[in-house]
Amino acid sequence: MAILNINDASKLKNYSYSFIASRSLGKWGSLSAGALHLFRDRTISDGASSWYLAWSRDFNRFGYTLGAGTGNFATRSPYDVEAGMGRRATAVFGSLTYKPVRNWMVAAEWTGSNLAATTSYVLPKKWPVIYFGVTDLTRYSGDSPTFVFGVGKVVKM
Questions:
Q1: 2-152: CATH, from 1.10.1740, 3.30.70, 3.30.160, 2.40.160
Q2: Which of 2, 26, 92, 115 is most buried by its number of CB atoms within 10 A?
Q3: Given the DSSP bridges, would you call strands 62-69 and 146-152 parallel, antiparallel or unpaired?
Q4: What is the pTM (predicted TM-score) of this model?
């Protein structure tokens, strides 16, 4: 999967790219590897290029992901360091998900440097997927909670 990221919607000129590859392991879940925020403009983005490996598994209406990575998973942004929050993040990340009804999911995610809460909904016929949420819910990094929003398409290969 290839992703175009718009890192600042107010300017519509701060882009980066992400790539994800995953493989189903049957009843054992799935394994994914990827790279996030590649080819970003370093003069206007504090996000670091990040590589990761993760394992995910769903059961009934619940799911979880556990992973480890470099870049933003392992280090805090220059702004966090400047604010006295230190340089190191955990490098380990994970999420818990719950699907209360078909096509709707809520999630809590530890990114390696902060906590996020999101919800997503897949419209009928799998187009589009709409998600929104809030990141930076702790004082571990970031300056305040930040709203996130996205639209995507589910593609099976």
A1: 2.40.160
A2: 115
A3: unpaired
A4: 0.82
